[in-house]
Amino acid sequence: MKATTRVIQWTTSLSMLAMLFAVQLSAQDSYYAPKGQQIPPPSCFTIRGAWEGGYVPCTPLSHYDWLTDITHWRAERRIRIGYDPARYEMPALKWTQSSFMQPQMMVHDRYFYDPVANKYTVDRYLDDLDKRYGGIDAVLIWATYPNMGIDDRNQHDMVRSMPGGVDGVRQMVADFHRRGVKVLFPMMMWDQGTRDPGASWPDAIATLMKQIDADGINGDTQDGVPLAFSLAADKVNHPLAFEPEGGPHDEGIAWNVLTWGQYTFQFVPTVDRYRWLEPRHQVNIQGRWLRDKTDDLQFAFFNGEGWESWENVWGIWNGVTPRDGEATRRVANIERAIAPFLVSQDWEPFYPMHRYGVFASKWPLGNQTLWTIVNRNEFDVSGRQMTVPYEKGMRYFDLYHGVELNAKTEDDRSVLEFTTEEHGYGAVLATPGTADGKVQELMAKMKGMTEKPLASFSHEWKPLAQQLVEIPPTKSAATAPEGMIRINGTDFLFKIEGIEIEGSDDVGVDVQYPWEDTPRRFHEHKMQIKPFYIDKYPVTNAEFKKFLDATHYRPKDDLNFLKDWKGGMYPDGAAKKPVTWVSIEDAREYAKWAGKRLPHEWEWQYASEGNDNRLYPWGNCDWLPPVPRAGVPTAIPSAGISPQVPAGTSTAVPGAPVTSPVPVNVSPCNWGSDPKNAPAPIADRGRVMLTAADVDAHPNGASPFGVMDMVGNVWQWTDEYVDDHTRAAIVRGGSHYRPLGSIWYFPQAYKNSQHGKLLLMAPSYDRSGALGFRCVKDAE
What we know:
This protein is of the alpha/beta class. The strands form ten sheets. Strands 24, 26, 27, 31, 32, 33 and 34 form a seven-stranded mixed beta sheet that branches. It has a six-stranded antiparallel beta sheet with strand order 15-16-17-23-19-20, covered by helices on one side. A five-stranded parallel beta sheet has the order 2-5-6-7-8. A hairpin with a 4-residue loop joins strand 3 and strand 4 (about 120). Helix 6 (about 200-210) crosses helix 7 and helix 10 runs antiparallel to helix 11. About 45% of the residues are buried.
């Protein structure tokens, strides 16, 4: 038996030596080299089966070896990167070190802005978060993606398009500051296809952020924000806290005082690389698509860091459950009260605990010590939890439950007993004498808060239901009004997909039609289309001018209204171009004046598609040349099927039914070398958006009913959908503007089977130079 044991131990030792040697080859300065942003825990926490040598519990020696190893790695890394902590000592950036809860907030959130009252509702937004999960310390205000790229407004223009312009945004930021909340905005260095900012990006960002008095910048998709951005902010005497989405190179933590943590979660917590290099470096863990936030919150609490409490994800609601909300409230209350401990340079992760699956970090501060504790088990753990050296006069407080602990003395050690609930939290403070007033206040609050266990709160995740905004019918017409085409009623297979860049087919993506029980990306529904009339062309500048002359209409929120007009008049030569820079509210007012309405999306689609499932209004040929690539010449297509509509249809007789289906085989349209013969405008790919084409410039683009200019010139307003947090419009047809340089720009939906979802905030923000409309009227 003893011989067998020695063989197992010898085999295990060889395996450990081989593993350690392999680690040394890849990182000579540490056996526990970081893997990306995460430093692995002691290997003794890994449970091994009998065939792997069996589980060997951690000991004080294994903990000492692990801690010594990562401490050595930290010391060496600081030397290698020439670490300078100066920015963490700047008074203007000290707020980051206690900024634990930070949501990414879409400006389209209905709790943030009221378009009817035409005002920001910061208090309503913050009050809701206070109620649901205990409030926030900072907010990342997202005004750009996914709408950016619908026209040539760059990321800063999108901010300036918010209600009230720069002055309005500055007052909104002041409203957050009044409530003690710091404000960040994002920067997208991939935004190189829209309007040139006219200055270097570091200078342009620093200037705008000073104008609106923002506190920091999130570097979207960036693995570290370059030092040049911090220096530019310093130069204008407005230091900014920079927060890259990805982890910077180690030297970057000297000027990136914040970071997102996008972790791979496992049972045993990992140590954050940047937090370990500099404990004053704040990390906000972000798992926007996770519906269970336990991993986010427990890894954050173990590392003494924060959470990106992101719920409105590009207009897709992923709200926290009541249990996660209550857990957030408790974690946040503790972290805010003990924040000075959580920047301790003597932080000791994985302080030895008695029970497997319960993990603690030790945070010494002067003659006091704090432990933050997480229970990763699926069951409550009670009784003996931790042992500490005996110190005469030392008292111990269970901060989580708000009670004092009676330490049991065993030899020269003190044993602490308490309970941590399943997937729960704990915090213990050791202090000589009486706890100070702030700690007593925290304990009183936590005692009342933790009377109900977390398990008593619902952990069920639910999507938000959406509603279609009603479009009141018009007075029915017996004959086609001037400029309109009759579309006869029919049975129609309405089949459509959303083209959102993110979200896969998760519930909540895209929209929820009246016949569906949840929002989703792909839709199919057999429906009855009632007869209606539709404008042959989109509404033009000249037609909109008649409306203005007759009504003297001027919207309350008039920023960007008819932005391309001067002195109340459209540009010379633009009479027949589609009117743009009009919000959905502006379009509805015009339609009401004209005795019409905006189309439902399925009406628009049937007028474009007919009943033969064609890809485009004119048929199944693709009119666009390939997207240009560096070094690759682009030829105009000259081969393929002709641009006329498929057999069995007629564009000479408006309203003629489609009688024969066509196979969906896409080929280039055979329109030769003259763009005027194309069924739609050729894409405009410059940084400055060109004007749209005249609405009658492309007669080869007629739909089977003779409706013109439906695709590729300007997007067109149709339906609006709302849920408790988001408004969004379905826009159809795509536009001529396709900025180059990034897949993250607002995607085009040229095909009849696709639609765009434009998040709505306010008329000033929603208006676009690539978005117009056409009207319909009900028919007898």
